[in-house]
Design brief:
One of its GO terms (cellular component) is cytosol. This is Luciferase-like domain-containing protein. GO terms for molecular function: oxidoreductase activity, acting on paired donors, with incorporation or reduction of molecular oxygen. Pfam families: Bac_luciferase (PF00296). With 330 residues, the chain is an alpha/beta fold. Helices cover 41% and strands 19% of the residues. It folds into two domains: 284 residues, Alpha-Beta Barrel (TIM Barrel); 38 residues. It has eleven helices and 13 strands. The strands form two sheets. It has an eight-stranded parallel beta barrel, surrounded by eight helices. The protein has a three-stranded antiparallel beta sheet with strand order 10-9-11, covered by helices on one side. The longest helix is centred in the N-terminal third of the chain and has 18 residues. The model has no long low-confidence stretch (mean pLDDT 93).
């Protein structure tokens, strides 16, 4: 079965280590992913998180491009609500000029942080003039087109090849928006693994895009033994916070849930603790699950997000998966 494997890394900070250690681990994993033949390596955007080091993916992307030579590097993704579409286009056109044909621009709708960091990021934004997400995608399309005859502001420099564009989402609405704007859809199965939602979203994107299939992002952890993988993943938890205004958000602990509510200015909230959806087991077991998803939904590419385990475990996992998929190796 033929499909591509790519990676998403959040630069988790291990207990007793520093953000600098976490970022060095991300660089090491990216270099190894290139050697193993992975197609893309994406980094995330999370703000004011004591356990995650990647707050500015565009800065980290530049460094990773300099430390690799073939693998595509990108954002998974830029949290577009915080930024000017023009500035995002400038940044990624510059990156694509530094490393032609290797840069991916993935964007998402979420804030990527708690209310205080969101307010800090948007301090100078006039809410009455703030464009909606669909308008920002349209603006990005205009700026990334690099049309020298366009009479508006141009997001120079114009690269030899434009960054590839990806919309991260997990809904029929996201699928239809991605197709309408001409963006590749990445279904965030690591955040919303509901099979019925996945099927409906895939069908909506295929219908609206004229037959294209989304990329599927999943959390996955491979180990030498099924028991070890089960033990490590079994300790992971997600806490879902429900606020009175209907907003929901996933955080990593009850303490983070309480902090999110405090920053949002509410005391009347409830939580649900859930076990995250993570493919786990031996590399052979995970490969069989990916093969089945490829067969059932026609998935052309998987972006695998390794849970926030140690750097050594994340590295071992991608090596086992690459070894299992011999066709992956360049």
């Amino acid at each position: 079965m033929t499909y591509l494997l790519s990676l998403l890394d959040k630069s988790p900070i291990e207990h007793g280590l520093t953000a600098a250690d976490a970022l060095r681990a991300t660089v090491k994993i990216a270099a190894r992913a290139e050697e193993l033949g992975y197609h893309r390596f994406w980094v995330a955007e999370h703000h004011n998180m004591s356990n995650l080091a990647s707050s500015a993916p565009e800065a980290l992307i530049a460094y990773l491009l300099a430390r690799t030579s073939r693998i595509r590097i990108g954002s998974g993704g830029v949290m577009l609500q915080h930024y000017s579409a023009y500035k995002v286009a400038e940044t990624f056109n510059l990156l694509a000029s530094l490393a032609p044909g290797r840069v991916d621009l993935g964007v998402g709708k979420a804030p990527g942080g708690f209310p205080l960091s969101t307010r800090a990021l948007q301090l100078a934004v006039d809410p009455a003039r703030k464009p909606d997400f669909a308008s920002q995608l349209s603006d990005l399309n205009t700026y990334l087109a690099a049309d020298p005859n366009y009479e508006g502001a141009q997001a120079t420099p114009f690269p030899p090849a434009a960054p590839e564009r990806f919309l991260l989402g997990a809904s029929v609405e996201s699928a239809e928006l991605a197709a309408e704007k001409g963006w590749e859809l990445v279904f965030a199965g690591h955040l919303n693994g509901d099979p019925d939602n996945l099927r409906r979203t895939f069908e909506a994107y295929e219908r609206a895009s004229g037959g294209k299939r989304p990329i599927l992002a999943l959390a996955a952890f491979a180990a030498e033994s099924e028991d070890y993988a089960r033990e490590r993943v079994g300790k992971l938890r997600i806490v879902k916070v429900f606020l009175p205004n209907g907003q929901t958000v996933n955080v990593g602990s009850e303490e983070q849930a309480a902090e999110f509510a405090r920053q949002a200015g509410v005391t009347d909230y409830r939580i649900e603790e859930k076990v995250p959806s993570v493919l786990h087991g031996t590399a052979e077991q995970i490969r069989k699950e990916l093969d089945e998803l490829h067969r059932r939904y026609g998935v052309k590419e998987f972006v695998l997000d390794t849970p926030a385990l140690s750097a050594a475990e994340r590295l071992a996992s991608i090596e086992l998966l690459a070894k299992e998929r011999l066709s992956l190796v360049a």
